[in-house]
Write the structure tokens for this entry.
Amino acid sequence: MTCASFHKITAGLLAATLTGAASGTVWADVPILDLKLADYKAISGVSGSLKSIGSDSLNNLMTLWAEGFKAAYPNVKIEIEGKGSSTAPPALVAGTAQFGPMSRPMKGKEVDDFEKKFGYKPIPIRSAVDALAVFVHKDNPIKCLTLQQVDAIFSKTRKGGSDKDVTTWGQLGLAGEWANRPISLYGRNSASGTYGYFKEVALFNGDYKDSVKEQPGSSTVVQGVATDKGAIGYSGIGYKTADVRAVPLAAKAVTQCFDATADDAYAGDYPLARFLYIYVNINPNQPLDPLRAEFTRFVYSKQGQQAVLKDGYFPITAAIAEEDLKSMRLK
Amino acid sequence: MPAAAVLSVPSASRPRAADLGAQGEPYLWMLGGALALGIAMIAGLLVLVLWNGLVTFVPREIALLTLADGSRIAGETVRAETFRVPAERLEGLAPEAKAKIAAEHGLARRTLYRTGNYDVYNDDFRWIADFEVAGVAYPDGMIFAERLEWGPFVGRLQSVTVDGEVLAASDIRAANVRAAHDLARARWQRIRKIERVEIGAVNHILERERLALRRVALTSGEDSAAWRAAAARFESRQTDAQARHKMLALEATRLKERDARDRIVLVEIGGAAKDMALSQVVRMYRANEFTWADRAAIYLSRWWEFLSDEPREANTEGGVLPAIFGTFAMTILMVIVVAPFGIVTALYLREYARQGRVVALVRISVNNLAGVPSIVYGVFGLGFFAYLLGGNIDQLFYAERLPNPTFGTGGLLWAALTLALLTVPVVIVATEEAIAAVPRSMREGSLACGASKWQTIRRIVLPRAMPGILTGIILAMARGAGEVAPLMLIGVVKLAPELPIDGLFPFVHLERSFMHLGFHVFDVGFQSRNSEAGKPMVFVTTLLLIALIAAMNVTAIALRNRLKRRFAGGHF
């Protein structure tokens, strides 16, 4: 799924009604929950063990869900492994995991491999919304970047249409001490879904420069950017710290720039907004076992989406929850 | 100084360069220097880990800042740095502030504050430049509350409710609140014990019965007499278990209802109030009214929580007990496997095998094995142990659990075996050296007295080689306990709060995935959402890992010294 189709979906389902002013506080950009989401009520007779293998962007979120779910069902065993989105499809095919969290949609080949083994397609759950942020050092004065500029910074093929390679901050319009400062690039390793998504949308399917310092985790990218003044890097907005700043982005040079906030992500204005998925192996001819059904319900409940907020991502709406639960025949 | 004068006379009469070289002085300096450099680097690393690890849990004061624009911020000071003030931030400043920055050549100081309250602010750390601050105070009444969820809360106490009744303002004394809090925490622990341990045991029985039934179904079919008998037994046990489950669940619900009536309301500095159950607060203290005894008590209680509790909030808070236990269990299991395996191999190579080309080849291969990258062992372990061996074990013995793998996936046993493979060359080499060092005369004496070859090895060679063999095992242990890369493939996971040993039959669960301190360091350092809050935990966990390995090594060294003393007296 590309960036364009995210916008199509968001236009219908994620109306901007979600983030009104939070009651009683002055923190206007704090994303809030859709109050129409169901309250989670534990049922009896759920036990067993679950294993999740996949994305590291979703690693903490899965852990938070697991903690919440275990609070409701203390005897459920949940194990979580997060080495990158590419590890999810093989684990689902091999049956070593029941849930495959991915920060990008499955590729055609991955779906085919799955279908070859089981005869049906895996079902994606859209569990949270992320605004993939482009981070710079907190002192960096850059105001806005277009995707073309981002492409020229990160890519050696420059499919975005920029005619010039960008290697210093001066080329992006910064003056003074920044004019001659070289740009140092931080990114993710290729097993990561964030790597794949950024390549597809921000690099227009081009290739990364060889000088990108590939990091083993999203948090490492942020730490790298935090300690390197001339740095730029990308990872989920949830990993933002006080030492880095998320640069507002524009899809094209003419349009205005948008911050990586919940509002702009929901409205589809922020160009790097994406869903975070969990893939599940659901046999269409058999009822879903209560353990996985309840975990899915938990993810879509108020409590589950509260965990999304806790991890720094943006929650989904009741409408999306409804639609996905229907596709899993849980509604 | 007559002595110096005497010494300097002969050297003055000879060419200086040759003199120095002949005496070996420059080499001595070089060697000494290299040693000093090495020791300094190791000591530096240890001091860094030790210092950062030890100060992490020290409770700090809460600063209340009034900013130039009138807003207020409260938080712990984390660190400060100097920065160059950008032009656009200078514009709105007061003239005296501008003059001050100009006097510092455009530089200013700024401080990072931990403001907490992530649920209210959507961030929990904030940089504040000195020129933005109108005033700093450390007022009484500021509370730092560590919560089960959402991280710490920084603010003031508004009200405390005990059993539905709000405590009067005059009753909110430290002792009262503390007593109510202790009660609420004890109740919460009890709820957790019922849910985890007691209901856990019931569910475990249920699961076992269900699997037993499924097993009968798989072996003798769904409508055989054996299956009907098993089904009847299952029904009756299930009814029993469910009755017990219901009773326990009822007690838990009752306690939870009571728990919900003890509440606390905290207000952050901007005025937003947070109402939560008192039991949700792990620890709270008035940060600006400390005595040294309070400080020490909080420090120790944080350490205790770290060592004895499960992790919370995606591993960034709480404790690391499962990881300590996992590391320890895996290392011990590895030693149990690697020691006999390595010693037997070395004995055969040194004592029985005819020394020739084949043995030399084997020896070279063993040495090369020590140089294979550890991740390769991880891949081998996953492919051979987990998928091949484990997959077959599942087919044969755990068919009723399929398609969920039991041994067919990474776990404690496979991880220990993989690490045993990784460290076996160390043990083999050390054992061979130790055996070779036993004097030939002793063996010959033994043989001459009529002892067989095996008797000689058992009674004469092995006891004397034992200290050297133990050295090898110590080295293997240190290497194994600190290894992370292969484990990531074969059984170590981010979260596995169930310990591999517990009170449920069969008590030792070697198939379980486990947590490991080394991986925990990787996870908290590189994967946690909030790297600012995660960093101190990295140091604490590293400190703990080093301490654990040191403790295991010291035990082994003490054992070795005892053995050495025993045989030192036994010489001719």
User: Anything to note?
Assistant: Residues 1-5, 7-28 of chain A have pLDDT under 50 and may be disordered. The two ends of chain A are 25 Å apart (CA to CA). The first helix of chain A runs from residue 3 to 13. Residues 131-273 of chain A form a domain with the D-Maltodextrin-Binding Protein; domain 2 fold (CATH 3.40.190.10).
